[in-house]
Design goal:
The complex is a heterodimer of chains A (about 100) and B (about 260).
Chain A lengths: L5 H28 L5 H12 L23 E2 L4 E2 H9 L6 E3 L3
Antiparallel strand pairs in A: 1-2
Chain B lengths: L59 H10 L6 H6 L20 E9 L2 H18 L7 E13 L9 E16 L3 H13 L5 E7 L7 H11 L8 H30 L1
Helix pairs in contact in B: 3-4
The chains are: A mainly alpha (about 100), B alpha+beta (about 260).
Chain lengths: ~100, ~260
């Protein structure tokens, strides 16, 4: 079950916003980067892009630990932070993961 | 229990392809499959129980062809009869390839090599019983992922712990068998799949000349005529934005500049 936190809720909001606005953002970016358009139009498109709020920008999206909501030390393959990953791996709760020895 | 092993004399060198009749019986099957068409598995209420060992009802042509195709000169029932303690203790009989035409490729992956070897052994024995020539299991390189993680929840970076995950892989190749036989083998393996072992199967079938066009026509029936990709959608939206929002502002600006 997902751990719920103020920061986790913000991240969920950001993800939803990014999903809804991705096409629009990409279209504006396409216009702003299009070499064939006159510079005024490109500048206008870039200004429009700057007006989007923070919950529509993909840079706001951050992987969080599913168990503790921690923002740092996340391992994408498991969706867990490093401490929880270590606890679960030691309890054999992660399939195929064991203490390395070589 | 008699200890003597039955060793028959070697047959003639004429090898015929391992093509069975449609009435082939699967010796190792559980008591729910029939020996008739593949569609019979859709009606579970009418299944009859079948003997575990191959019975005399099996077509003689197929048995003879297996006998002739086997490298050691045994047929599968003869070889099976020679086993004292059971198939799990012995390597399967590897039938000789008659035409060297590849028919299937089986990839197995697991975190546990013992489970993997067990299932590959099981699959090899099933192929042997069906008369499918297969290769010895090949060991593909093991994939190893390593994660190094600090032990403490706070600071103490110098104290870390290593965790790893190894993915072991095996490969078995099959030749020459009839597509119906391969289908039966594959369905048998899927039905008796082992938890902890993943299986991926690549199959090749022989098709008559001119099949490409038919396949293309069939495929086109299922495809929508005009598929709009995300990139196209983005470009269209960009053009709309330019026409409706951005270009009108520019024309207004120029007219204002000229008038003043």
């Amino acid at each position: 079950m997902l751990f719920v936190n103020a920061r986790v809720l913000r991240d969920i909001k950001a993800r939803k916003g990014v999903l809804d606005n991705e096409l629009l953002r990409r279209a504006y970016l396409y216009v702003a980067r299009d070499q064939r358009q006159p510079p005024q139009i490109r500048h206008q498109a870039q200004l429009q892009l700057n007006t989007f709020g923070r919950y529509t920008r993909p840079t706001t999206v951050k992987n969080r630990c599913v168990e503790t909501g921690r923002g740092r030390g996340i391992m994408s393959e498991f969706g867990l932070c490093r401490t929880v990953f270590r606890l679960k791996a030691r309890n054999h709760e992660l399939p195929g993961v064991h203490k390395a020895s070589w | 229990m008699p200890e003597e092993i039955f060793i028959p004399s070697k047959p003639a060198a004429n090898a015929s392809p391992a093509v069975p009749d449609s009435e082939a019986v699967l010796p190792l099957v559980n008591a729910t499959e029939t020996a008739s068409t593949p569609d019979a598995t859709q009606t579970p209420t009418q299944e009859t129980t079948k003997a575990v060992l191959p019975t005399p009802e099996v077509s003689q042509n197929w048995l003879d062809s297996i006998k002739q195709s086997s490298q050691s000169g045994f047929s599968e029932p003869e070889w099976a009869a020679s086993i004292v303690h059971g198939r799990s203790r012995h390597e399967p009989l590897y039938h000789a390839r008659t035409h060297n035409i590849p028919v299937a490729l089986l990839h197995f992956r697991s975190y546990t090599p013992s489970l993997l070897d067990l299932f590959v052994h099981f699959a090899s024995h099933a192929a042997c019983s069906l008369g499918i020539p297969i290769s010895r299991p090949a060991k593909l390189p093991t994939q190893r992922s390593l994660w190094t993680v600090p032990r403490s929840p706070f600071v103490h970076k110098k104290a870390q712990e290593n965790f790893e995950r190894r993915v072991h892989k095996r490969l078995v190749k099959a030749w020459d068998a009839d597509p119906t036989v391969v289908e039966r083998w594959v369905r048998y393996l899927e039905k008796n799949a082992m938890p902890g072992v993943g299986m991926r199967i690549v199959r090749w079938e022989r098709a008559p000349v001119g099949v490409g066009e038919k396949v293309y026509i069939e495929a086109r029936k299922g495809v929508r005529e005009r598929v709009v990709t995300d990139k196209e959608r983005m470009k269209r939206l960009g053009e709309q934005i330019v026409q409706k929002e951005l270009a009108p502002t520019q024309t207004v600006a120029t007219t204002v500049a000229t008038s003043s």
